[in-house]
Amino acid sequence: MAFLIIVIVLLALLLVFGLSVKVVKQYEQGVLFRLGRVLGSRGPGLRVIVPFVDVLHRVSLRIVTMPIQSQGIITRDNVSVDVSAVAYFRVVDAVKSVVAIENVYAAIDQIAQTTLRKVVGQHTLDETLSETDTINLDIREILDVTTVEWGVQVTLVELKDIQLPDSMKRAMARQAEAEREKRAKIINAEGESLAAAALGDASDIMMAHPLALQLRNLQSLVEIGVDKNTTVVFPAPLMSTIGELGSFLAREAAAATPSVPLPLDAAKPGMPRVPVNGGPVIAGRT
Q1: What is the pLDDT of residue 137?
Q2: Looking at the DSSP assignment, which residues form a beta bridge with residue 182?
Q3: How far is CA 185 from CA 138, 173, 178, 182, 192, in A?
Q4: CA-CA distance, 262 to 74, in Å (whole number)?
Q5: What is the mean pLDDT of residues 15-40?
Q6: What are the start-end ranges of the H helices in the chain?
Q7: Judging by beta carbons within 10 Å of its beta carbon (0-12, 13-18, 19+), is residue 100 exposed, middle or buried?
Q8: What is the DSSP letter of 49?
Q9: CA angle 91-93-94, nearest 5°?
Q10: Which is it for strands 45-48 and 80-91: parallel, antiparallel or unpaired?
Q11: CA 126 to mean position of chain CA atoms
């Protein structure tokens, strides 16, 4: 009987000891309540409390990563977009995080969603896409002001994804394509301008040195004949030379041909009759 009593006492002492000893980890902070009243915070280590009288709440001080669900937002220029983000926060005052609010994680999730919708709705679509750093900073500042009473510090907010309607994607693609075409045309025009200036300088040089044009024509013929094609190219100066040569040969042939006497009746009206070598009269022009 006595042995049973000793065992019961030992078990009771062991139970009381187990309820009295609490371990707070390095990344945690404990909030001690005694009969419902806050006695303060307790640091990491072995902590002894009064069983059935004290309650120790452990609060993690590590940075928490919280994804913000995608929100359907209408921007200032009336474009519907779906924006999601991610927030990083940590508890800096364990007592406030337990006493001031019931569930700090759910509260930050909800306030982050509403703040994201509010801030993005104040910007246009172009600003939302290009000024993400400014939007992130605005959201973090608003969350910091709201959560300071909860003992929470928001360290970082980043926009994670921005989903655009398909019609807006197509419009932006057309805009980007038009912008690229504009740049290409401007570059092409600048190249044509530079080429025209270079050709003007080259023409001035060729005017001063006529043989340079002939050499350039010969070089072009060599380049064309590299591929062993059957195309025959005659430069313009060569064609004019051939034409002049043909006219010269025609004149020489006409001058070398002897004159043939014409009958008197074959003479055209208005043409005087001229005797040839004392012979009959032939028609000729005066």
Answers
A1: 92
A2: none
A3: 41, 18, 10, 5, 10
A4: 104
A5: 84
A6: 2-20, 94-99, 104-121, 125-130, 132-147, 166-208, 210-224, 236-256
A7: middle
A8: -
A9: 80
A10: unpaired
A11: 13
Cα separation, 282 vs 238, in Å, equals 42
Tokens of 33: 């309540």
> Which of 45, 9, 143 has the alpha carbon at shortest distance from 88?
143
CB 29 within 8 A of CB 56: no
Q: Scanning the structure block, which residue is given the tokens 């929100």?
A: 71
Rounded to whole angstroms, the Cα distance separating 18 from 16 reads 5
Find out whether 43 and 22 touch, Cβ atoms under 8 Å: no
- What single letter denotes the amino acid at residue 169? K
Which residues does 242 contact at the CB level (< 8 Å), separation at least 6?
234
Judge contact between 67 and 83, C-beta under 8 A.
no
pLDDT of residue 207: 76
Return d(Cα 151, Cα 71) in angstroms, integer.
Answer: 26
Max CA separation in the chain (angstroms): 184
Cα separations (Å) of 219 from 213, 222, 225, 227?
10, 5, 10, 14
pTM score > 0.70 for this model? no
What Å distances lie between residue 152 and 60, 86, 111, 125, 135, CA to CA?
A: 11, 16, 13, 31, 21
Reported as a single tens digit per residue, the pLDDT across 263-277 is: 545 444 554 554 444
Percent of the chain with pLDDT over 70: 80
Please tell me the predicted confidence (pLDDT) of residue 13: 73
Model pLDDT for residues 167-208, shown as the tens digit of each residue: 888 888 888 889 889 999 999 999 988 888 888 888 777 777
Instruction: Quote the tokens at residue 246.
Output: 């043909």
Mean pLDDT of 61-67: 91
